[in-house]
Amino acid sequence: MGEPISKEACQKKLNGINDALYAIGGKWKIKIIIAISEGYSRFNEIQRTLGISAKVLSMELKDLELNGFIQRNIDPGPPVVIDYTTTQYSNSLDQVLAALSNWGEQHREKIRAERS
Amino acid sequence: MGEPISKEACQKKLNGINDALYAIGGKWKIKIIIAISEGYSRFNEIQRTLGISAKVLSMELKDLELNGFIQRNIDPGPPVVIDYTTTQYSNSLDQVLAALSNWGEQHREKIRAERS
Lengths: 116, 116
What we know:
The structure is a homodimer of 116-residue chains.
Chain A: H1 7-24, H2 29-37, H3 43-50, H4 54-66, E1 70-75, E2 81-86, H5 94-115
Antiparallel strand pairs in A: 1-2
């Protein structure tokens, strides 16, 4: 796809895509980051708004925290309140999300045009 | 994330992202498109290079064909030979893949810097 490039440059591009898919690929990660950035900060809120199982959400939140996209905040209370916020680093995804968003809008137009 | 925007613009962005994730999200779709664009054109080749089950690959290929990213070609032979190629439309993903790739490279640098 795209312009011809050297084998090394191509491999570097592919490695980048693989790294990106590893960190934010899969069914849920981008959706969770967006939900938290929209203000769904509590575990139950995130779970409800996305319709994700508690077990999977729990694993995904740990991954996202390890990768530095979100932060787990503990207010010792009482009552103890745990919530999640996005980090500064999650802003580094802005370009990826913008590209996805633009492409998604165009794709929707295409599908709509084909159907009519 | 990013600059403040109107609620409508935000919703449009989110819809775009959702549409994009629906079409190319998940564990395999982008990897399959890249593998085919690299010249892995036969079912068994794609399966082997990605380490994906035949059942899942078969479903993913159908989805990708329906969405217009790949084409299934039948050479009636004999022997009958079926292979897959990417379409012109798959080039529309170039910007998304470039954004993913750039971000992935930067993310790798960050992880590396944190470890050392």
